[in-house]
Structures are given as C-alpha cells and as structure tokens.
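Open question from group meeting: does this chain pack into something compact, or does most of it stay loose? Before anyone orders reagents, we agreed to write out a predicted structure and look at it together. Recording both the input and the output here so the notebook holds the full record.
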Amino acid sequence: MAAKAKKQADADLDEADDDAPAKGKGKRKLPVKLIGMAAGGVLLLGGLGYGGYMFMAKPAHHAPKKQAGKPAVFVDLPDVLVNLSNSGADRTQYLKVKVTLELPNQSLVDKIKPLMPRVLDVFQTYLRELRPTDLDGSAGLYRMKEALTRRVNAVVAPSHITAVLFKEIVVQ
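Structure tokens returned:
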C-alpha cells in the first residue's frame, strides 16, 4: 500500500507540473484583460465627457450676435507744444503732441467742452515735467497715454473719457 500511495503521490506531482504552466498563463491573461477593460472604461468615460461638453457648450457660430454699441465719439484738442525737462542738458528739446479724446457717447461732448482749458492745463503741466528718456519706446508712450487719461478723467469727473489717442508725437 505504501508503494501504491507513493505512485499516486508521484502521479499527482506530475499532473501538478503539467498544470503549472497552464496556471501561469492564466495569471498573465488576467492582467491583460483587466488592462483592456480599464482602457475601454477610460475611453467610454472620455467619450461621455466630451459628448456632455459639446451638448452643454454652445458653439460660437450658433451664438446670437450682440448688437453693436453706440459708436465712440472723438474730440480733437488743439496741438500742445512744450519744452521737455532737460536737467542740465545743453540744448532744449520740445515735444509737440496732437491729441484726440475718445468719449463713450455724444452727450459727454457738451459736458467736456467748457472744461477744455483745464484739460489743456493738465496736459501742459504733465508734459513739461517729462524727460526725453521718458518717451523712449512704446512703453514710454503707453505710460504717457495712461497718465494723461487718468488726469483728464480727474478733471472731467464725474464724467469719464475712454482714452487719450495720439494723432502725432514729435520730439525735437
């Protein structure tokens, strides 16, 4: 009986060795299946998310166009000619500026016209303090434009101008 049991145990071990590669293949297939299912799930969720986005967000060509607002109104100011601050330089430099004020509507023109002497005074006092180096490059002109807009808005308050626009700038 002992011999019979030993033969049976040896046979069971041989069968176990034959099943071992099959079990190993089964372990390899399981992660591949999981990866495939996970990738399918991610694609499904991505497709649903994109579909939801397209459903909720209206394309730009279907959006109604807004009515154009009232066109801006422009008021020309007289030319301003000032000498620049030269801090010890031998020659005096001049700045000539042609400016236009941009207003949001026509009704402000009547409110601003009586204040033009103050607006020109603000321009003169600010521009006379500038040095030639303050006007270098587009950044210098942008700073000058913003400063003039702030000063004009302070003079014409509670009214409000949109911008100061330069028609011509000459430094000589």
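Observations to bring back to the group:
The longest strand covers residues 94-103.
Residues 73-171 form a domain with the Tetrahydropterin Synthase; Chain A fold (CATH 3.30.479).
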